[in-house]
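Chapter review: from sequence to fold.
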Amino acid sequence: MLKFLLKPSLIAFLYCLFTINSVNAVEVSKLDEANVPVSSRAIAERDKALKSALEQVIIKNTGTARSLDNSLIQSQLSNPDTLLSQYGYIEQNGQLLLTASFEHRRIVALLRQAQLPVWGTQRPLTLFWVAMPGDGDTMILGDSSALAERKLFSDFS
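The C-alpha cell string follows.
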C-alpha cells in the first residue's frame, strides 16, 4: 500500500491538487474590440478592416486561429456589420486605425452555434504543464525553467 502512495504520478497529482490555489490568472479585457491599421477612410478599406477586426475578436474569444476555418464563421466574416456595435477611427503614432466593437453576446452565441470553444476574461498564465521523467524522479517543466528540455520545448513549439 505504501508503494502505491509513493508513485511519482500520484505525488505529482497531489502536488498539483494542493498548489492549484497558487496558480494565477490574467484578465483579458476588450474581448469584443479590435484595432486594425487602414490606409484611408474609404468604404472598401473600412469593409476590409471590419472583417479583419471580426477575425481578431473571434480569435480572442476562441483562443485559436483555426476557428476562422469554420463554415459558419466564414459566412459571418463576409458580413461583419450584423455583429458590429460601433466603429470609429483613431490615429496612433501617425498610423490611422479603425477601431471596432462588436456585440459580445452575439459573438458568444455565434461561437456556440459553430460549436467552438468560448474563453472568458479570466485566462490562466499557465496553459499546461509538462511532467518529464528525470534521474529517478519526476520533474515539472515550468515556463521559467533553465533546463535544456525547456529550450527544446520552446524551439519545437
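Two observations follow directly from the output. The helical segments are 2-5, 8-19, 43-62, 71-77, 104-113, 148-156. Residues 32-123 form one domain.
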